[in-house]
């Protein structure tokens, strides 16, 4: 298998939350899509009383979230899934955990579990991923920006591993893939936050975000966005994938109305109970490579 797209994510659910429309659009075009997941999300918080026993039970939650990942991947149309620690048999590499600094910003917790992904030797992990890159030969690799989207230590590590793996596999090669970093158009995000405020009273028990507050590290000015993906054509797939991650995502619903200027097509909330907009356009920054030589699926636009 050659060409196509390879995405590197830290935990089950990140593939949908950060890059769902890109993955679904690429898969729908018939091109190859490979999803690499670095941990099984063992330390994630769990939504719902009937699943509460999973929280804190690393092996049980890992197994459950791996099942959710499979369902989400099927919804997005992804057939090629890889757990990074299974490439060389050095795992399991486990979820490092995090604590919230503020809305949309996270950092490492006071304790790091044995085998945590954040503690895995960079050259070892990158070497495993480089093997896969040389086998799959993707045209495009997508992952987080240097701060991991919102600061989660495993996201930061996934970024470092991905960038080093591309270097190891393709240094100086004309066949090196383009590297995209998932981004958020800050103007669209803040408009989406305002739309969540308008909807907030109708979503029982959930809070609306502050349109003037902190934003995740992935948020950038519109002028910094290099690639846009239209979400509407694959919205049903993305919503189905979000709903597959039921331990992590709640209150997934389409925003009523047909306003073409609406920033958000849907809303959802994570375990913190704060509504988030599913923006009508996914945004990316091009960190390396020449997008002009890549055949992009319909719905993926270079600005």
Provide a short characterization of the protein structure:
The chain has 303 residues and is of the alpha/beta class.
Topology:
Blueprint (H helix, E strand, L loop, with lengths): L4 E5 L4 H15 L4 E5 L20 H19 L3 E4 L1 H4 L10 E4 L2 E3 L14 H15 L3 E4 L9 H18 L7 E8 H15 L18 E2 L6 E4 L4 H10 L5 E5 L9 E6 L5 E5 L1 E8 L11 E3 L1
Parallel strand pairs: 1-2, 1-6, 2-3, 6-7, 7-8
Antiparallel strand pairs: 4-5, 7-13, 9-13, 9-14, 10-11, 11-12
Helix pairs in contact: 1-7, 2-7, 4-5
Written account of the structure:
This protein has 303 residues and is α/β, with parallel strands linked by helices. It has two domains: 5-182 and 282-302, Rossmann fold (3-Layer(aba) Sandwich); 186-214 and 230-281, no CATH class. The protein is built from seven helices and 14 strands. Strands 1, 2, 3, 6, 7, 8, 9, 13 and 14 form a nine-stranded mixed β-sheet that branches. A three-stranded antiparallel β-sheet has the order 10-11-12, with helices on both faces. α1 packs antiparallel against α7. The longest helix has 19 residues, at 58-76. It is globular.
